[in-house]
Amino acid sequence: MADDKLTAQETKEQVLWVAQEMLRSGLVEGTAGNVGARLPDGNAVLTPSSLDYLEMTLDDLVVCDLDGNVLEGERSPTTEKALHLSALRLHENIDATMHCHAKHATMFALVREPIPAVIEEFDVFVGGNVEVAEYRTTGTDELADEVASRVATKACVLMANHGLFAVGKTPKDVLHIASLVERTAEIVWGARALGSVVPLPDEVNQTFSGYYRYGRTGKF
User: Fold this and answer.
1) Closest Cα to residue 83, out of 71, 105, 100?
2) Sheet holding 70-72, edge to edge
3) Is residue 191 within 8 Å of 103, Cβ to Cβ?
4) What are phi and psi of 57, to 5 degrees?
5) How many whole angstroms separate alpha carbon 134 and alpha carbon 112?
6) How far is CA 171 from CA 10, 181, 195, in A?
7) Residue 132's beta-bridge partner residues?
8) Higher pLDDT residue, 144 or 220?
9) Confidence of residue 219 (pLDDT cuts 50, 70, 90)
């Protein structure tokens, strides 16, 4: 997805930093949420299960193959490992993943309503409306397959009654995307208290979401 790929060490450092920033920025509380990334050798690095992000070190990260077999690390990988690995297996142009419980995005997930692409920047970085995946039980392969199927042409999907799943080029890229989606969800929520949200013209949505698709696939 990018000309300048991160090294294995850089990837792990970004995963750790993004996991901690995910907590600091309020995208999760406690030990909720998880982060993953593809390593140069094709395996994946994941955050561990149930460990305080602010106490987490590089040694706590877990390396798995894409079938979920642990290759490095003393801890258990996140209980949502299937979610991350399914997306990496299915989409070669995804190199980083994040699942979080961002408050306003999760509000949309609870009422099972898409977050609309009503801001041009949102289209460019996300690729259009953030749709809601069908409900599947947490931690299951069924959830992983359902969610992974929804990020073929979008950077994010809502997990019904659960939270947000975001994908991108690098862990820092995914953090930016998740933060943008959460900010937009809050803006839309607030705007609806003022009145009806006016959508962007269809041709603008198509053009700007095309920029996202081109950046991801090289095709409009």
Assistant:
1) 100
2) 70-72, 62-64, 44-46, 34-38, 96-100, 163-168, 156-159, 132-133
3) no
4) -125, 175
5) 9
6) 10, 15, 36
7) 158
8) 144
9) confident
The answer to whether the beta carbons of residues 163 and 106 sit under 8 Å apart is: yes
What's the pTM value of the predicted model, to 2 decimals? Answer: 0.95
Q: What is the dihedral of CA 51, 56, 57, 59, to 10 degrees?
A: 0
The token duo for 191 is: 């705007």
Domain with 167 in it: what CATH number?
3.40.225.10
Structure tokens at 155: 């950077």
What per-residue confidence (pLDDT) applies to 218?
80
pLDDT of residue 1: 39
Q: Nearest to residue 171, comparing CAs of 91, 94, 79, 80? A: 94
Find all residues with CB under 8 Å of 213, minimum gap 6, and list them. 127, 153, 219, 220
Q: Is 153 inside a domain boundary?
A: yes
Residue 2 lies in a domain: no
